[in-house]
Amino acid sequence: MPDTVPIHDAAELTRLIETRYHARHREQLPVLAEMSAKVEAVHSGDKNVPAGLSDLLRHLIDEMEVHMKTEELILFPAIRKGWKPDIEHPIAVMRNDHENHVHGIAEIRALTNGLTLPEGACRSWTALYSGLTEFVADLEEHMRLENEVLFPQFEPGDQPDD
Length: 162
Description:
By secondary structure, the chain is mainly alpha-helical.
């Protein structure tokens, strides 16, 4: 993350998450789902083909869109206003969604042999795994920023140092 972003400034962090991570996930996932469908169709007889990956990615598109819209329309505006009463419930829902995303990442890794290309993989397959590697890293950092930096500022218990 750039050094210029004040990670403890909740309002700024919500804007970063929306502009950097939400926007990027919306760009990445549809392209990856289409690339995966192509690889699965072209290489359907290959034992290494990530069969079912395009369906998983389409499911993630739907799941993550609901999650991101909830953050953008409900949680993040409340955080920007410094609203604390009853904010714990939406945060708990977001944390639960993150657990589902972790399972989705595990499924991606399982279907792709740990994002390891088979020998002689075509350009489309190579581009797919490269894109998936970037998506997974982006999603993991997105969740880390929320779980470890943003959400604790609005939950009871230990508060992060300023």
